[in-house]
Amino acid sequence: MAAQGVQLIPSSEEIMRILKRTGAFREGHFVYPNGKHTAHYFQMPLAFRYYDTARVLAVALSRKFRVERDIASQLPKVSVISPSSGGIPVAFGVRDALNAEQIYWAEQESGQRMFRQYVNQGEINPCIIVDDIIRSGHAIEETVELVRSLGAPIIGCGAIVRFASAPKQIGDVSIKSLVEFDEQSYDSSESCVACKQGVPEEHVRF
Ligand SMILES: [Zn+2]
Question: Mean of the pLDDT values across residues 102-114?
């Protein structure tokens, strides 16, 4: 059963084709608010505006969790948790595919990550944290702290795309992803190849 499940997960190339087709992944010359220059730009919500695409991505990610014995054996008494608004459609899709019982999402309020819903100690099932993209891993790490402070064990963690520079695991839980993206960025225009070639730049948000 497990082997069959693994075969049903689309390849990274197929996932990247979906992200390109929906505009969630673009190539060009981009400048971030922190001054970094890159040739690639991810805007994951663009892939999640189409229900069919959102479903394909979430179901694919859910299969990476379902093959884990520690997760499969605890379903449906599992929580799926999003660290931010970008992960909410992923969390709902994964919850649906796994038929997990609970869903929570966190938001930044006054610089602190907290749950939108009122959550008391002991209310959260063993949890899977999912996001659309993991760049630095800070959002995931803060969410892990938040979840642990409420006494819930973390049994899974993942995203559609994980930057290769982000952590590979959280504690003893490995971070699953459909695409591992090796991003090249330049700290300033002096070192940027596209700048040297005179390619027009586009200023973008994270
Ligand atoms: Zn540049």
Answer: 90
